[in-house]
Amino acid sequence: MKKGMVKIMEVQYSSTRNSGKKITASQAILQGLSEDGGLFVPDHIPALSLSMRELADRNYQETAYEVMKLLLTDFTEEELKDCIARAYDSKFDTEEIAPLVEAEGAYYLELFHGATIAFKDMALSILPHLMITAAKKNHVDREIVILTATSGDTGKAALAGFAGVAGTKIIVFYPKNGVSPIQEKQMVTQKGDNTFVVGIHGNFDDAQTGVKQLFNDKELAGEMAACGLQFSSANSINIGRLVPQVVYYVYAYAKLLKEEKIADGEKINVVVPTGNFGNILAAFYAKNMGVPINKLICASNENKVLYDFFMTGEYDRNREFKLTSSPSMDILISSNLERMIYRIAGDDADQTGKLMKALSEQGVYHVTEEMKEGLSDFHGGFADEKETAERIRSIYEDTGYVLDTHTAVASAVYQKYAAETGDKTKTVIASTASPFKFTRSVMNAIDQKYDAMGDFELVDELSKIGNVKIPKAIEEIRTAPVLHDHVCDRTEMKAVVKQFLGME
Predict the structure, then answer these.
(1) How far is CA 369 from CA 281, 305, 358, in A?
(2) Alpha carbon distance 287, 121 (integer Å)
(3) Cα–Cα distance between 424 and 405 in angstroms, integer?
(4) Are strands 106-110 and 427-431 parallel, antiparallel or unpaired?
(5) What's the number of CA atoms in the CB half-sphere (13 Å) around residue 431?
(6) 212 φ, ψ to 5°?
(7) Which residues pair with 173 in a beta bridge?
(8) What pLDDT score was predicted for residue 235?
């Protein structure tokens, strides 16, 4: 080992429901979900090996390597750098990959410059490369079938990532009436012989529950193995999704430091619009790796199950499901919260398993007061539809900057938080989607007169009033033919999967 080099301690992964069995990062990525239904978590969160000052001089790709090498320790330097180079390239419309834009005293971390103009691109552009590399490392000779549920963004980002990737197939389930028209058009026009998109009669939680059941179906796994196939996941339950998300919080802090917006060591707040909890969990991991973060502000829309959880310590999905203008957050079962529960339970797999069983069977669980104390880094807030629309309009009128509906939820929550607490800490808001994905909701918020326009007329008008170029992802679907028109009931998901895989 060269002088001055720090030996990286291996990080192993275990299930939130069985901490005894440890596997490598590449095995966890390949498997996606543990056999016992739990999620893979690292046995420790390593500290960054470079200072924030050193990281300030790194570009996005270099920062990604410095973060990911610490969490994906069984990948070689060559393997990781190759995956990163293939992921963060000209697919993104800016060399910065994730620019920071200041508006009304907060810094918006724009995570929507990838191929599908949503934050999911940040992780899903690299996951296929990590997965193929992991398959080679582990001498897997079966074809990998990516099975995923989406509330709108993951689906297209995963389809774009895996389309045409040799040795893989991808099946995406989405709620037929629970995504925006643009989100749906992006998915159903997806090219690629290895892609399959299905709308289900139900909501995202139905799709996600159905996918989890298929993962845990031992009989199906045996039938697939006999056909040379195995499941893996592109949802945020896959640790290969979560690790790349940690990168952009490290990058954001380093960038603020480089631009002298903050002093070295100065703490920042981070606000994340959240449905499934993965994106804010990544910020929590970044904090634990050494990024000076003060509060992690978890912003919910009217499906405020996470807000209620932070307020009371009770997680209760037994409530009315609301379709909102921020559909990617219309979620009542926040899968990634399980990783946090495991942590605040003191890495107790038995306790975590009991709570998740209660959620599955009764739809509700309670954490202890001691566990609740483990959530002190977090602050929960929510914004209703009216507040979200008002925020889009006021930011646009004051600055000319156009927010999408999800980022507007986060911005409205931040505004309320700052007013209630008087906390003047500099703040990064995760901007999770381009406003072009939700043109009707965005334009109606700015002025009701736009409601008479068609979806693509709205795109042109948004470009004009926001002085923003129409993203390639939108231009491509204007005239693209529908290639996927399959719709099924949630009870038919298994049959649909078997049919697509030629197992019927």
Answers:
(1) 21, 18, 18
(2) 22
(3) 24
(4) parallel
(5) 29
(6) -60, -40
(7) 149, 198
(8) 83
Q: Distance between CA 367 and CA 431 in Å, rounded?
A: 30
Q: Tell me: pLDDT of 4 over 60.
A: no
- As a whole number of angstroms, the distance between CA 314 and CA 308 comes to 7
Torsion of CA 332, 406, 338, 178, to 10 degrees: 40
CB 205 within 8 A of CB 321: yes
Q: What is the pTM of this model?
A: 0.94
Cβ neighbours of 78 (radius 10 Å): 8
The set of residues, in sequence order, having a beta carbon less than 8 Å from that of 131 and lying 6+ positions away, is 29, 30, 144, 168, 232, 240
CB 429 within 8 Å of CB 411: yes
- The CA distance from 11 to 347, in Å, is 15
pLDDT tens-digit map of 303-317: 999 999 999 999 999
Distance (Å) of CA 417 to CA 380, 385, 414, 430: 9, 17, 5, 16
Buried/exposed 334-349: b ≥16 CB within 10 Å, e otherwise: bbbbbbbbbbbbeebb
SS3 content of the chain, % helix, strand, coil (to 5): 45, 15, 35
Smallest CA-to-CA distance from 288 within 34, 40, 47, 23 is with 47
Q: Find the catalytic residue in 3, 69, 81, 120.
A: 120
* 214 token code pair: 């298929």
CA angle 121, 297, 433 (to 5 degrees): 25
Q: Cβ contacts of residue 147 below 8 Å, gap of 6+?
A: 171, 211, 214, 215, 231, 232, 233, 497
Arithmetic mean of pLDDT, 60-70: 98
CB 171, CB 146: distance < 8 Å: yes
What is residue 461's three-state secondary structure?
helix
Vertex 82 angle, CA 81 and 87, to 5°:
95
Classify the phi-psi angles of 164: left when phi > 0, otherwise alpha if psi is within -120 to 50, otherwise beta. Answer: left
Q: What is the pLDDT of residues 209-233, one digit of tens each?
A: 999 999 989 999 999 999 999 999 8
What domains are defined for the chain? 100-118+240-469 (3.40.50.1100)
Clarify whether 120 is annotated catalytic. yes
